[in-house]
Amino acid sequence: MQTTAMLYKNNIGGTQTESSSKDFFEKYNPADKNELLGKFPKSNQKDLDEAVNHAKKAFEIWKNTPAPKRAEILYRAAEITKEQKEELAKILTKETGKPIVEAMGEIQEVIDTYLFFAGEGRRIYGMTGQSELHNKSIITIRQPVGICGLITAWNFPSAVPSWKVAPALISGNVVILKPSKDAPLSGYMLVENLYKAGLPKGCASVLFGSGEFGDLIVRHPEIKIVSITGSVEVGKMVYETCGRMLKKCALELGGKNAIVALEDANPDLLLEGVLWGAFGTTGQRCTSTSRLIIQKSSWSDSFIERLANAAKKLVIGNGLNEKTQVGPLITNSHRDSVHGFTERAVREGGNVLCGGKFLTGGEYDKGNYYEPTIISNIKPSMELAVKEVFGPVLAVIEVKNFEEALQVANNTEYGLSLSIYTKDINLAMQAANRFESGIVYINAPTIGAECGGAAAFGGWKFTGNGTREGGVMALDTYTQHKTIYVDYSNKLQRAQID
Ligand code: NAD
């Protein structure tokens, strides 16, 4: 396992390969800017063409390998990942800054995803249809599409690649993964372990690079599917290119998620849920709770005060310390971007109840630390009520009643995860029905989706284009349907519409 080496190479079809660019980017630990985790190649068109050539050859073999045999490799990969769980979690914490307990959870998600899709290897079902004619059968089968270009964000650098790689491979496709340059190592380890599990050469490659290189992947004519997790801004560009090239494209983009707290909510449960939803992973989840939409009630003011006091007590630090609850932000420039939201919210009339500042002194000087921040007096039209921050900043929006809460919750261009806290089952189910989001939680925060289970993951509106990760629905991205008619009448029969 190449974890200590500082100079990484691309993994092209199972072979460590230098980039012809001979140029590198550096990746540092966000909790300690002095710790260089590695230098990674800046890949170029030539590197990509080489990976595509290997992938094309491998596809001919892999697509004809029975799916249950393909599944055996995913089962082995799950075992190997389990054996390396702690080591992989440490790598993940070092490259993202997330607390080690969260990193362990993310590696478990990889294991669960492999196990789920390995199971699907025996269930890539088609259907049988009823013919309008005598002695004629209709069956449909799912077939792989070809080379998949998989482009990922940095915040879940193990889980998100597994959500793409596992359904792609089990369906018989081959993959080229480009992890984010802000977290390149975990994706690299993921593919290394697939080869250890017996994946035939050529079926997977990892190439490092920035967004510019991602664009080369999207534009490559031999790459037939693009699946990208990232920001709305990038997703729009990718979708446009795929549209022009009529490529299959799966988009999993940003979110502006909210917890709606009604006056009959359980305040203790709500407190824990809001803290975890807003400040878990330092608010850097696509599903992070970035709005608390709270119904004005006899207890709402004191609750908001209690929440701010609890946020002040969260333990902030290096994720490798087991006591840490909130790690650093991924980069210095991202911290500036997060702080910009706080400053603008204050200018618009927001009231900072806690946080709102960079953390400095001692170990904080080494990393990109930002205080968990809660800002009240946010109105639905303000920037903080509608734009994704992707950091530990919670907007508190007060509303009069259930109807207003729903209207505010839906009032963003995003549609990923919305939650409601109430004891009233009727209101809970009405909200579940009327929330404009791909995921709904009842009496639980907006984070914590389980893609390694049967549940599908993905968003509505600008969060995506309707495709899903996780669950059987992920197979829709990575397969195409074929309808086979068998006429055993031994004569020409004509359907009404040919
Ligand atoms: P980003 O959009 O900056 O980058 C995502 C990936 O796209 C990176 O690998 C990047 O190199 C690549 N990229 C950038 N420009 C490209 C281009 N023109 N063509 C092709 N590829 C390009 O996002 P990020 O900062 O890495 O991640 C944060 C964003 O990701 C947030 O908006 C977050 O909500 C979102 N996210 C969404 C989900 C989800 O499943 N919905 C999950 C995690 C993160």
Describe this structure as you would to a colleague:
It is built from 15 helices and 21 strands. Helix 2 runs antiparallel to helix 4 and helix 4 runs parallel beside helix 5. The mean pLDDT is 97. The chain has helices at residues 45-62, 67-83, 85-96, 100-120, 159-170, 185-196, 211-219, 232-245, 267-279, 300-312, 332-347, 383-386, 402-409, 425-434, 474-478; strands at residues 10-12, 15-17, 24-29, 32-41, 127-130, 136-144, 147-151, 174-178, 204-206, 223-229, 248-252, 257-261, 289-295, 351-354, 373-376, 393-399, 414-415, 417-421, 439-442, 460-461, 479-487. 53% of the residues are buried. The strands form 6 sheets. Strands 14-15-16-13-12-18-19 form a 7-stranded mixed sheet, sandwiched between helices. A 5-stranded parallel sheet has the order 9-8-7-10-11, with helices on both faces. Strand 8, helix 6 (185-196) and strand 9 form a beta-alpha-beta unit. The protein is of the alpha/beta class and 498 residues long. Helix content is 37%, strand content 22%. The chain has 2 domains: 10-253 and 464-483, Aldehyde Dehydrogenase, Chain A, domain 1, CATH 3.40.605.10; 257-442, Aldehyde Dehydrogenase, Chain A, domain 2, CATH 3.40.309.10. It is globular, with a radius of gyration of 24 Å. The structure holds nicotinamide-adenine-dinucleotide.
